[in-house]
Design a protein that fits this description.
Blueprint lengths: L2 H7 L4 H15 L10 H15 L5 H19 L18 H12 L1 H10 L5 H18 L26 H28 L6 H17 L7 E10 L4 H4 L5 H12 L9 E3 L13 H6 L9 E12 L2 E12 L4 E6 L21 H4 L13 E2 L7 E5 L18 E6 L9 H16 L2 E6 L4 E4 L5 E5 L5 E8 L7 H5 L2 H31 L1
Parallel strand pairs: 1-2, 2-3, 7-8, 8-9
Antiparallel strand pairs: 1-12, 3-4, 4-5, 6-7, 9-10, 10-11
Helix pairs in contact: 1-8, 2-3, 2-4, 3-4, 3-8, 4-5, 4-6, 6-7, 7-8, 7-16, 8-9, 8-14
């Protein structure tokens, strides 16, 4: 027994319901990696939906129930952010409570505002449909507001089984969020009805439609056939505290080289290092560029992350880049990170920050911004796209829409996240991009989880969190395939949301007609 009816039966006041909603939000974060698939997280989410949508509530009550659920849901789901403040000998540890509170206070709005939209519904079915539409719409808004942060999209919770995310090839991760939320609303309606000892037939529509879609899409899953191109992932798992230590720069550089050639390089077409793997400006440092050729196979290539010294407005500017080098040490092509991380790779409004932010402002440098969707063209290799770390979390933000590559190179450094959920969630985001775009993703992390992700969502050759080693992976025979979402992108989302709004309007209209007929008869 759960939901608003149960709470009323035991006379649980609204303030206690808000507290219950808060703790349900914290538990619901268990639906995401590395805990994905845990029934406790889904049970908490269903409880919240039954509490929110069942029974009649004021706009104010709907907002606060959802807001405090969202506060805990996002603050706990994003708790790995605080690890970045503990890297430099806990120098910024005092900001951890502030960041935790700020995360919850801000992202709670992305649950509270959809609840206000739900208030327009005249019954729980209309409220449920409006909430689903508004929630997913705000997930999309979250991808670009304040430069965007579409981390832990609800559809990502299904990534624990590649068959469950095949639908992303048709409707994207946002569409999967919509389907999953509809299904959970249906379950919440059934539970709410059970409390009131009545059968809520409308719940079946919320359950059967998304369940049928997910089942149909899962049928498109096919194991990939191996090709003849082998890549070597290199993961040294260098602690973030050592990553930029001047006295350890060369040791870290040599660790990458030595790991790369720890097994014969025969048959390897490409060795892939992580983000900023090289501490040297290889475009201007011939000595270390010559030394790096030890890690490059004969007739093959090395992909490495590094800082590139570029020129912008007549000044030397560092870019967070990746290079593709051949056996002679020549740079065959490169990619500069285009979507920079605010407060990490550039500081917005630096001059206007208050004095207490000065310690942070002094250590955050502004990097140059690269050209979005620049492809990497190297003779002897398939056409490749690039995404450096944070860029891989953006649906329709990583693959050139006019000239689709066959491989997406994702170079990452998850050392900032420590031993937390962050690296697992970051990997899941790359997995969703692979299925959405139907593309092979090669993900190499300095510290984190390195793996190759096939277009069907299968993760192969993974090196676990903090593992030190190499992994040789044979890429699939078909590196990329066309997908509906790849062609039409978020226009599909807009169609889904419009359909949902029309259904909600129809439910409201029908409900109004039934009430008028009932009033006329009485």
């Amino acid at each position: 027994m759960c939901g608003a009816g149960l709470l009323q039966r035991f006379r649980i006041g609204f303030k206690k319901q808000v507290v219950l909603s808060f703790f349900a939000g914290a538990a619901a974060a268990l639906i995401f990696p590395p805990f994905e698939g845990m029934w406790q997280g889904y049970a908490a989410l269903v409880l919240f939906l039954a509490l929110l949508l069942g029974g009649e509530r004021s706009k104010k009550q709907l907002f606060w129930l959802a807001y405090w659920f969202g506060f805990a849901f996002y603050a706990v789901g994003f708790i790995w952010i605080n690890n970045a403040l503990l890297i430099d000998n806990n120098k910024f540890a005092e900001y951890v409570p502030l960041v935790f509170l700020a995360t919850g206070l801000f992202f709670g709005l992305f649950m509270g505002l959809p609840a206000l939209a739900a208030a327009r519904g005249r019954n729980m079915y209309a409220r449920g449909m409006l909430f689903c539409c508004a929630f997913v719409g705000f997930e999309w808004i979250r991808s670009f507001i304040f430069t965007g942060f579409p981390w832990n999209l609800l559809g990502t919770a299904l990534s624990f089984d590649p068959r469950l995310i095949q639908g992303a090839a048709y409707i994207g991760t946002y569409g999967l969020s919509f389907m999953l939320l509809l299904l959970l609303c249906g379950v919440a309606f059934l539970l709410y009805g059970a409390v009131r000892r009545q059968f809520c037939a409308g719940a079946l529509g919320f359950i059967l439609l998304p369940a049928a879609f997910l089942y149909w899409a899962a049928g498109a899953y096919l194991p990939a056939e191996q090709g003849n191109l082998t890549v070597r992932l290199v993961q040294p798992s260098i602690p973030q505290t050592f990553k930029w230590h001047p006295a350890l720069a060369y040791k870290n550089f040599r660790q990458y080289i030595d790991l790369s050639k720890s097994k014969p390089l025969d048959g390897v077409a490409m060795v892939v290092w992580g983000e900023t793997a090289s501490p040297y400006f290889l475009d201007r440092d011939g000595e270390h560029r010559s030394e790096i050729t030890e890690a490059i196979p004969e007739g093959g290539f090395l992909v490495t992350g590094l800082l590139r010294a570029g020129i912008a407005n007549g000044e030397v500017v560092p870019y967070n880049s990746l290079f593709v080098l051949d056996k002679t040490g020549d740079v065959k092509d490169y990619y500069d990170k285009a979507h920079l991380v605010p407060f990490g790779e550039y500081l917005p409004f630096r001059r206007y920050l208050p004095d207490f932010m000065a310690p942070v402002a002094n250590v955050v440098g502004d990097l140059g911004q690269g050209v979005p969707f620049k492809n990497i063209q190297v003779q002897g290799l398939p056409l490749m796209g690039g995404a450096i770390c944070y860029e891989s979390i953006f649906p329709k933000g990583v693959v050139n829409p006019k000239n689709k590559p066959e491989i997406l190179l994702v170079l990452a450094n998850d050392g900032w996240y420590g031993v937390s959920a962050g690296p697992y969630q970051h990997l899941a985001a790359a997995q969703m991009r692979a299925v959405e775009e139907g593309i092979t993703v090669i993900r190499s992390a300095n510290t984190g989880i390195s793996a190759v992700i096939l277009p069907n969502g299968d993760i192969v050759g993974a090196l676990g969190l903090n593992a030190v080693g190499i992994s040789d992976v044979v890429l699939p025979k078909v590196l990329a395939r066309d997908t509906l979402y790849g062609r039409f992108g978020n226009r599909i989302l807009l169609v889904l949301l419009l359909a949902g709004l029309l259904v909600a309007l129809g439910i409201n209209t029908l409900n109004g007609c039934l009430k008028r007929r009932s009033a006329f008869r009485s």
